[in-house]
């Protein structure tokens, strides 16, 4: 796919509808796009590439747009292979192209693409400029958004922000490439899932990057996944500002693991009680059915989290264990948690949820409603009613 952003700035992207798991971990029900950008000024510059093997026409497309000119610069804003995968092929076609990146990018280049001569690499520092003619690029370091070498390039003359992973989203570009050619709201959910699963852990760094970017007049945002934001870039800027301080909406994500439906009974009872106590946003998930990435996306929005697990080999259910592991990695902070479990010949579900939640309390300012509740076997009406006062107390604390 190609599109003209300006006469001298071109979008070159590809849609990946074959890959089932991004980073071999995150489901891609709507696929994903990889975007790269070519500037054809007095000097020519390619800004990031695409994943190796995702589009066999990529090099031909670059050549078509170069129209016989040499490629002066290959600017590497982010070294993750979904964007740096074609560096080798580009340099084989253009052996004299200068690779532009920062000191950390150089180290990663050595790992992923060894053999590039040091003289062929231009190291830039935060704030450095690269003049291409009309377009002048200024580099803005944004470490950990998404990797330590991550940086953005800001075109001072045309006020374009090449933002690499930031403002990117899962989901292919199905015809429309620019925000005025699509319904931006269609991408909001998948952009939040990308944010909460891929870079949410680095939200303090995202906040710092947003503060830097807020000082710049930005007319167009060109990310490496998803739409180009040229009509209303403020919209995604505002989304990001909200997500970087996630968990601000009043609501509860209730995730449970069950083997034979007994813990589900408790979950549905709690959900109903939450509703009776005035909570309007309640999202309930069976973690054996729903991949953690979709649960995390919802956790990112709301200030309440209720986790329940049956006991499984004296611990929590493996599916709940996986969700807790992903939560520990992505570190949504300051949530109000309520825990419950089910037991039969052994307990362990609740106990292990408590161990997990104590860790989140210590490291990420979770507030735990104690005690958690563990119900035996198939909970009868009387057993379920013992939850009522606890859910009322918990709800009042949200
Ligand atoms: Fe889209 Fe961090 O790579």
List the helices and strands and how they pair.
Elements: E1 2-6, E2 9-16, E3 21-22, E4 26-27, E5 32-40, E6 44-47, H1 58-66, E7 73-75, H2 81-84, H3 87-93, E8 98-101, H4 103-112, E9 121-123, E10 129-131, E11 136-141, E12 151-155, E13 160-164, H5 184-199, H6 203-214, E14 220-223, H7 233-244, E15 249-257, H8 262-276, E16 282-286, H9 292-299, E17 302-312, E18 315-316, H10 318-330, E19 336-343, H11 349-364, E20 367-376, H12 381-385, H13 388-396
Parallel strand pairs: 6-7, 7-8, 8-9, 13-14, 15-16, 15-17, 17-19, 19-20
Antiparallel strand pairs: 1-2, 2-5, 3-4, 5-6, 10-11, 11-12, 12-13, 17-18
The structure holds MU-OXO-diiron (FEO).
Description:
The chain is an alpha/beta fold and 398 residues long. It has two domains: 2-244, Metallo-beta-lactamase, Chain A, CATH 3.60.15.10; 252-396, Flavodoxin domain (Rossmann fold), CATH 3.40.50. The protein is built from 13 helices and 20 strands. The chain has helices at residues 58-66, 81-84, 87-93, 103-112, 184-199, 203-214, 233-244, 262-276, 292-299, 318-330, 349-364, 381-385, 388-396, and strands spanning 2-6, 9-16, 21-22, 26-27, 32-40, 44-47, 73-75, 98-101, 121-123, 129-131, 136-141, 151-155, 160-164, 220-223, 249-257, 282-286, 302-312, 315-316, 336-343, 367-376. The chain has a seven-stranded mixed beta sheet. Strand 1 and strand 2 (9-16) form a beta hairpin. The protein starts with a strand and ends with a helix. MU-OXO-diiron (FEO) is lined by residues 78, 80, 82-83, 146, 165, 224-225.
């Amino acid at each position: 796919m190609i599109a003209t952003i300006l006469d001298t700035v071109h979008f070159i992207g590809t849609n990946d509808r074959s890959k089932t798991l991004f980073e071999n971990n995150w489901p891609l029900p709507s696929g994903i796009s990889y975007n790269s950008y070519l500037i054809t000024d007095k000097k020519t510059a390619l800004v990031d590439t695409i994943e190796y093997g995702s589009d066999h026409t990529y090099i031909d497309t670059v050549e078509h747009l170069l129209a016989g000119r040499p490629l002066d610069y290959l600017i590497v804003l982010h070294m993750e292979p979904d964007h740096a995968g074609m560096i080798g092929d580009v340099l084989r076609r253009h052996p004299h192209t200068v690779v532009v990146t920062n000191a950390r990018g150089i180290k990663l280049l050595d790992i992923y693409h060894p053999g590039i001569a040091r003289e062929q690499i231009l190291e830039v520092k935060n704030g450095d400029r690269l003049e291409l003619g009309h377009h002048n690029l200024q580099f803005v370091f944004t470490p950990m958004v998404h990797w330590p070498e991550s940086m953005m390039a800001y075109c001072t003359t045309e006020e374009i922000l090449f933002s690499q992973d930031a403002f990117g989203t899962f989901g292919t570009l199905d015809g429309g490439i620019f925000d005025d050619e699509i319904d931006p709201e269609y991408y909001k959910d998948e952009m939040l899932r990308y944010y909460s699963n891929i870079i949410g852990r680095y939200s303090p760094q995202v906040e710092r990057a947003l503060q830097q970017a807020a000082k710049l007049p930005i007319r167009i945002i060109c990310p490496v996944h998803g739409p180009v934001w040229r009509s209303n870039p403020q919209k995604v800027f505002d989304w990001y500002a909200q997500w970087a301080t996630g968990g601000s909406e009043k609501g509860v994500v209730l995730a449970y693991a069950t083997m034979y439906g007994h813990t589900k009974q408790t979950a549905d009872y709690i959900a109903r009680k939450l509703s009776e106590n005035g909570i309007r946003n309640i999202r309930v998930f069976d973690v054996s059915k729903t991949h953690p990435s979709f649960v995390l996306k919802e956790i990112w929005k709301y200030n309440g989290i209720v986790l329940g697990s049956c006991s499984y080999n004296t611990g929590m259910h493996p599916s709940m264990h996986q969700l807790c592991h992903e939560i520990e990695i992505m570190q949504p902070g300051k949530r109000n948690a309520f825990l419950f479990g089910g037991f039969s010949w052994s307990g362990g579900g609740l106990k292990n949820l408590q161990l997990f939640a104590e860790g989140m309390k210590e490291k990420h300012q979770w507030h735990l409603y104690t005690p958690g509740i563990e119900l035996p076997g198939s909970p009868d009406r009387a057993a379920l009613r013992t939850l009522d006062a606890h859910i009322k107390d918990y709800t009042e604390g949200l």
